[in-house]
Design goal:
The structure is a homodimer. Chain A folds into 2 domains: about 100 residues, Winged helix-like DNA-binding domain superfamily/Winged helix DNA-binding domain (Arc Repressor Mutant, subunit A, Orthogonal Bundle), CATH 1.10.10.10; about 60 residues, Dna Ligase, domain 1 (2-Layer Sandwich), CATH 3.30.1490.190. In chain A, strands 1-3-2 form a 3-stranded antiparallel β-sheet. A 3-stranded mixed β-sheet of chain A has the order 5-4-6, covered by helices on one side. The first copy, chain A, is of the alpha+beta class. Chain A has 5 helices and 6 strands, in the order ααβααββββαβ. The first copy, chain A, binds a DNA duplex through helix 2 and helix 4.
DNA sequence: GTCCATGCAAATGATTTGCAGTATC
DNA sequence: GATACTGCAAATCATTTGCATGGAC
């Protein structure tokens, strides 16, 4: 997943923010690991490879900024770390949320895209007078390697 | 929502754990606020009303214990506090998860019960070889008072 | 009486913040 | 050149832990 530097620069300028190497590098670090869910510390280590002078506080501040700009999404797997991944809004496209399967044994996190939730949202909106604009779903269980498909053959 | 003290005592003893006032009181504090999502600090304050000697560390340790015993559930709304609510496993009954509508304006949290997710779980199990055993859903939006039903009449 | 549970105070660890120097516009 | 951004170190704050005392069984 590549970052459109020009588009990001434009967005920053629009908001009266400055374009800095640190900001671009943090965003590109996250973009370079599309299937990971990086912690601030991990992003810090990644950026340090090409820009050793960066400070951890800058990473935290940048992450917060990019999140506010909707360029990245924040997620938590309740292991004590906030995690980040590329945002889902591309140009004018509609949101295409992906959710997470979390393996209770090995901790692996698998992302999946789903549209079934739209239906649920509609239902909620009608019944509760609640206008849903976003959702987050986590499914916990066991992945293939950890016995996900051995449901029937348990008991060994 | 009342706590069946005898049943809880039995459960604790079964596990070789001791029955203490603190443990019962923490559980009852949580049970006494079925529509709230209490933080450790809030539970601490509640229990202190009837048992002023209790320490915050005990509340944290007890919460952890009750969570492991599946008597309470942990949830996080990403505001920096872990929150707790009564567990959903009642006797031998099947789980009946409820999920959360979180208002982005007033912060109100509305719980709702849903079974549509079962369908989604089945789908995932088949396609990804993933055996889902639990799920967590958060819907973000605007509640009735904050304009949830004004979707059409927006503008101005 | 044994050993687990508690209360207090101190430790931990992710994240935030103050401030002086630095880079962007 | 003004002002926003950065790096460093110190501060914050929810949660955890060590240890001596107290309570359950």
């Amino acid at each position: 997943m590549a970052v459109d530097r020009e588009q990001v620069k434009r967005l920053l300028k629009e908001k009266g923010l400055k374009v800095t190497n640190q900001r671009l590098l943090v965003l590109e670090a996250i973009a370079s690991c599309p299937d990971e869910h990086l912690t601030a510390e991990e992003i810090f280590e990644l950026v340090k490879l090409s820009y050793p002078e960066i400070g951890l506080a800058t990473v935290y501040r940048t992450i917060q900024l990019l999140n506010e700009l909707k360029l990245i999404d924040k997620i938590s797997f309740d292991d004590g770390f906030a995690r980040y991944e590329m945002g889902n809004t591309r140009d004018g496209e509609q949101k295409h949320h992906h959710h997470h399967l979390i393996c209770l044994k090995c901790g692996r996190v698998i992302s999946f895209r789903d549209d079934l939730l739209e239906e649920l949202e509609q239902k909620i909106a009608c019944t509760a007078g609640f206008h849903v604009v976003d959702h987050e779903v986590k499914l916990y269980g066991y992945c293939e390697e950890c016995g996900g498909d051995l449901i029937e053959e348990k008991r060994e």
